[in-house]
Every structure is written in structure tokens, then in C-alpha cells.
């Protein structure tokens, strides 16, 4: 049973004084509204230690032993992307005792780890990064009015995740850039490819594509969505078309189509 708050110091001292004046414990309890066992404990503590100060409460027995803590630390070090519920299940099966989710989180923190959002691995190579820096330096002097003429376009894959894909990772505070802590990829997940565009004053059309966009698919998407988007965003003003260096964008047939339609492309 949990121990209640300690009796007030003045009451303890008066209890000792009453005891020294040979007053019965039951009468002392009635006087100060204390249980007889409390009076007895105060007197016994004074007789043994010479003061009425209460002793330290006994420490709570830890859920895991030192050996189990070492096994726990080894397990989370090898399973960085494991969810808390799975760690709780593993601990209960491995150690044979009931451990709560809150205790599991405390032991993770005690081992020097914590849950962080997993970073996504960059798909840019060193040459990609160099080309992007060079492009940024070439357009460093552009004015805001020039950027407002740009129609930005891109494709993106939207996946429908399932199962434990490792959104969270167990790591130490200084381990954010370790590749083993990056977000894990799920192959063959349900996904859809979307082409879209935007400018400084709004967004253009969205085009949903089935599977990977090839050059012919890209041209069909432009034929259907480019003109309506340009009319809505730029009216009859001149604009600059932006696209990245994806294979479907740099294909010869795509370049011919852009020249035929007299589309000014941002280099």
C-alpha cells in the first residue's frame, strides 16, 4: 500500500513530548487525531534514531532487471523501425512479465534513445546536386517579375501506404543523418501518378496518369492541360514553361512537340 503524506513536524514533536510525559498512545492519538499505529511509529522511530523524522520510502522494484535492460537495449538497436506496440509484445514474451507501453517508452529513453520522424533518403546524386547549384547561380539575378512569368510543372507519385513502413525510428539525438535510420521504402505499393502545374498567381490543371509517364503520355497530358492552364493563369501574356530533366521531358519527340507548339522552355 502506498504511504500517505508525512505527519506535520510540530505534531510529531508534540507527540514525543506527550509520550515523555507518560501519556497513553491512545489518548495522544485522540488529541492530535492520529491513528494509534501512527503514534506508535513516531515513538518507535524516536526511540531508535533519536529524532521523529520519517524515513525514506522504499524504492519501487524496477520492471526490468539489469540483464533485461541490456537485452532491451540490444533489441531496439537492431530494430530501429519497430513500433512501440511491437516492442511491448516482444518484451512480454521475452521477459515473461507484464510491461506497459509507458514503461517501455521510459526504458527506451533510459537507454539513450527516443522516437523521431524518419528522414527520407535523398534521390539526388552528386552530379544532380552540382547541376542544380549551377542552374541556381545562372538565375540568381532574375527579378520577381521574371519569376512570375514561369509556369512550373512536375509529376509526382502518390502512394497508399500499408503496414509498418517506418514513419518513426528509434535513434539517439545525434543520429539523424545515419542512412540506416532513413524511412524505409515499400515496393509495389498502390500508387497513382499525377501531373500538375502552378504559377505565381494560382494553380493549373491536374492530370492523373496510369503507371509510369512515358514521352507519349507526357505529350497527351500537355495537349489536354497545358492550354487551359495557360489561359487561366496568364491570359494572353507571354509565359515560360518549366520542366525537369526526366526522360519523358528530354525525349526527342517531346522536344519536337514543344517547338511545334512554340512553347518557350526555361533552360
TrEMBL record:
Compartments reported by the entry: Nucleus
GO cellular component terms attached to this protein's record: nucleus
GO BP, sorted A to Z: DNA integration; DNA transposition
InterPro entries the record matches: Homeodomain-like_sf (IPR009057), RNaseH_sf (IPR036397), Transposase_Tc1-like (IPR002492)
Pfam families: HTH_Tnp_Tc3_2
Top-rank lineage group of the source organism: Eukaryota
Location of the Transposase Tc1-like domain: 73-140
A GO molecular-function descriptor: DNA binding
Name of the featured protein: Transposable element Tc1 transposase
